[in-house]
Design goal:
By secondary structure, the chain is mainly alpha-helical. Helices cover 64% and strands 0% of the residues.
Length: 333
């Protein structure tokens, strides 16, 4: 047996996706670090950059040692650090926090798809890094008064069991009463609101600075989808007499000068769409109220179609790097 077996198709695919995601994040950090005028926020981002960058190099070395082409990912050509600020103070850490949340989910899943020890260690280390900086970013936002906590609730005094299928009742039938959301459902709905608010701010800025009219229109459409999701979920909370905490900050400035390439901005939006699909799937799986599952299913359809539209724009413009393919045996034969 060889001392180190060749990487499998799953390992190749997950390393490739990680390379794309991390090089995108590094380019975003290039800009946010340059523009940061809050010393604490800048320090957080510099430290994160210094911890992530070596793993991009490690992945490149693995590809090189295996005789595989090193992906292009995102380079200095995809960022313009010297342009005016596109977002107010605080948004940079909001964005970084969300990327770390995405990274935690991806790296943990990637570990389950790897068997070679050095690759498992790459994802294990990246999982630890994302967990660390997710917490650092959360504590920073709390300290600055820019983090909205989910609603509080009275503590249960005894254990109850569900005894009637009416517990599953939602709002699909206007003649029936629906129960108030439980804490698991509130957690998933609140998370969807929180991530869509950050996504809306991000994509509003993207729409403001995109070079291509087609890309501008695409980002504008994405903003409307986020607004619709936020509005519908807010209404669900209010119907149950639950207030949704909100914190202002990190708004889009008046700048119209693009700090990022259209290619990078569409990829970033696509990554957030994938995360939203996963989050909505989780919310659907753990919700027992049928009107909530109907809503999240509808959201997933809209987000999937929007992401597919973005993929078409990337292909049309030659921006979509092809994922490592399996051999086409019929073609080879």
């Amino acid at each position: 047996m060889p001392e180190k077996p060749a990487i499998t198709s799953s390992e190749l695919g997950t390393l490739w996706l990680t390379y794309q995601e991390k090089t995108m994040l590094l380019r975003m950090l290039d800009y946010f670090i340059e523009q940061a005028d809050d010393a604490q926020a800048k320090s957080i981002m510099v430290d994160l950059y210094d911890e992530i960058d070596p793993y991009v190099e490690k992945i490149a070395v693995i590809f090189q040692n295996e005789g595989a082409a090193i992906p292009v990912g995102f380079t200095s050509e995809d960022v313009n650090k010297g342009v005016p600020k596109l977002y107010d103070n605080g948004f940079d850490i909001m964005f970084v926090r969300l990327t770390q949340e995405i990274g935690m989910a991806l790296h943990t899943l990637n570990i389950t798809m790897a068997s070679r020890e050095d690759i498992i260690m790459v994802f294990k280390d990246l999982t630890a890094i994302t967990q660390k900086y997710y917490n650092v970013c959360t504590q920073y936002l709390i300290e600055k008064g820019m983090h909205a906590r989910p609603p509080y609730v009275s503590m249960p005094k005894k254990v109850e069991f569900i005894t009637d299928t009416s517990y599953l009742r939602g709002g699909l039938n206007p003649l029936t009463n629906k129960r108030t959301m439980n804490t698991v459902e509130v957690a998933n709905m609140f998370h969807a609101i929180e991530t869509n608010i950050t996504g809306l701010q991000l994509i509003t800025g993207f729409a403001q600075v995109a070079n291509s009219p087609e890309v501008k229109k695409y980002f504008g459409k994405g903003g409307e989808i986020s607004k619709s999701i936020i509005k519908e979920l807010h209404e669900v909370f209010l119907e149950d007499n639950i207030q949704v905490p909100a914190v202002s900050g990190g708004n889009v400035t008046q700048s119209t000068v693009p700090p990022f390439s259209d290619k990078l901005m569409i990829y970033c939006t696509s990554l957030f769409c994938s995360f939203a699909l996963g989050g909505n799937s989780l919310g659907t799986a753990f919700s027992l109220r049928n009107d909530l599952t109907a809503k999240t299913t509808a959201f997933m359809k809209d987000v999937f179609e929007y992401a597919h539209e973005g993929a078409k724009i990337m292909i049309k413009n030659g921006w979509m790097e092809e994922q490592p393919p399996m051999g086409d045996r019929e073609k080879l034969t």
